[in-house]
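Letters spell out the chain; backbone shape is given numerically. Both lines appear below:
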Amino acid sequence: MIDNSIEKLVNYALRAGLIEEEDRVWAENSLIASLGLESFTRPARTEGPDDIESILAELLAFAVEKGLIDDSITEKDLFDARLMGLLTPRPSEVVRSFRAKYAESPRDATDWYYGLSRATDYIRTYRVRKDLKWKSATEYGELDITVNLSKPEKDPKAIAAAGKAKAGGYPKCLLCREAEGYAGNLRYPARSNHRLIPLTLNGEAFFLQYSPYVYYNEHCIVLNAEHVPMKISKAAFLRLLDFVGQFPHYFLGSNADLPIVGGSILSHDHFQGGHYTFAMEKAEIETELSFRGFEDVTAGIVKWPMSVIRLRGADPGRLADLADRILTAWRGWTDESVTVYAETDGEKHNTITPIARRRGEDFELDLVLRNNLTTPEYPLGLFHPHQELHHIKKENIGLIEVMGLAVLPARLKTELKELADALVSGGDLYATPTLASHAAWAEELKARHVFTSDNAEEILRQEVGVVFMKVLEHAGVFKRDEAGRAAFLRFAENV
């Protein structure tokens, strides 16, 4: 039986272009050794499902039965990545193929590389498909909503084992280039089948990879070759614009460089991009701006729940110069009338979330103004989702959310289904522990909707989109009222 599974994996690798026929015996022997076998008989014909998820499930069941690994998600992920790593082309081969494709077109290169990342099971497409995804119509356009189910949660056994494991410092973080081919451990995810593409951005060394969780199409990460912290600066703007110059079909953005308004990893300089059109990109400029000395750059305030200045022009260097001027002004800007403070008690609060893209032949740069001030009333952040929205979204609002895609916790899959059932049956929401946090929201919804078994789940999905819109409005430093608009214009005039 195990011989059949081994041969199915080798045949899969051949079909996916990971190996060639001349590699067959070598591939078989590599898998045999990893599975602790001493002999192998190639079947005349393989039997059973031949998709990658099913094949790996068979091999993992064998590994657990023989005591090679524990029956935990973490150990299974480490083991099957090691098997796939044996069949993944070497980094030099991957880079050579990418560059050959790039010589034909940037799109050909990324199409090939994205396909490779899926074929090697680095991107576990069968897990990504489990994510719940929908769109919600709002006054700012259709927002993307996803309930993330593809990132596996560690089970108690793995958590306990990780607690006893010796902590190491290699690789230093999840984004270090030393992760390429790293087998992983109970504290660090498997990267045996991980391959990087070297890039030069603004004269500096970076690497391109894809996110294994793919929150949107071709979700890529561009990471600094050095383990240096996030920093929004003119150099960062130039890197973003250089990237979209090299890959005009992709956008690239950066999380902010301060806690609360930044991403989950501030210790390693990196960007995120991909081949997807977010609602923010579709949003129009509603108020034109003009900056002295930059008459060649089109600028304006974007109709978006957060505070966004959009720059557009033919010369990326000019956009970077103006963006730097705006950043410098914003770093020091205080307007007490709208509770914007550049600094309190020696702690700086203002920064920017930038996003670069091409608009035809022009370059475009969106600058999202951010502030991480906390107050006694809002200890997690004044410009952060407020407490009444935490039943849906409590986490930081990073780059992906800023652009209009909500990444929501897995618990909502069950909670929204239970809530829909309770709204139809008239159950006591406050008496149900998993629904109590949603009860006040649900009471407000009942005043506006009549819930039936046919419409309850769809109404909740659309209303989740409305909550996410409010999340973004909370994160906006200049509110979309008369006082906020006036304050925004005061800042723009000061640049």
Observations:
- The first strand starts at residue 132 and ends at 138.
